[in-house]
Design goal:
Elements (H helix, E strand, L loop, with lengths): L1 H20 L10 H6 L2 E9 L2 E2 L6 H4 L2 E5 L3 E5 L12 E9 L4 E4 L10 E7 L4 E7 L7 E7 L1
Antiparallel strand pairs: 1-2, 1-3, 1-9, 3-4, 4-5, 5-6, 6-7, 7-8, 8-9
Amino acid sequence: MKLKCTIVFTVLSFLFCVITGCQRYVTYQKTKTELLIQNLWSLRSVVRAGMDAMHLVPPCYRDNLVRFRPLGEGFISDNIIRCNVPGPSVTPLYWSFRENETVLVVSQELIPYTAREMTLKHLSDTLLVVQVIHTPPAGPASDLVVTYH
């Protein structure tokens, strides 16, 4: 009888350890779309060849706010320093992902003379980092790494 109780106790202990020890805590991983649409993005930095390149961005673009909304819609808000006076302070924006969500395509330039296709470098709850080609009216084209928060 003592052996039988020991075996039952051992089996039950083993099952308890397996059930509670193997229980996985499921964490929800947000999709890139969910991460992109959850924030109102503002420009944080612009880097070219490892150097600060914020001077390439006119002051009226530096304080713009960008909102990506579901279904590929959104807007760019001119915020305090307006670029389009006397035009509207909000410009519609259409966006999509391409190439397995590694390329972000937008309908409007977020920074003057930049391509509308940007390589997604990093996207989190609080940070959006893209690489985009900048082609000024004079001078050679170059890659910019643009960070929004």
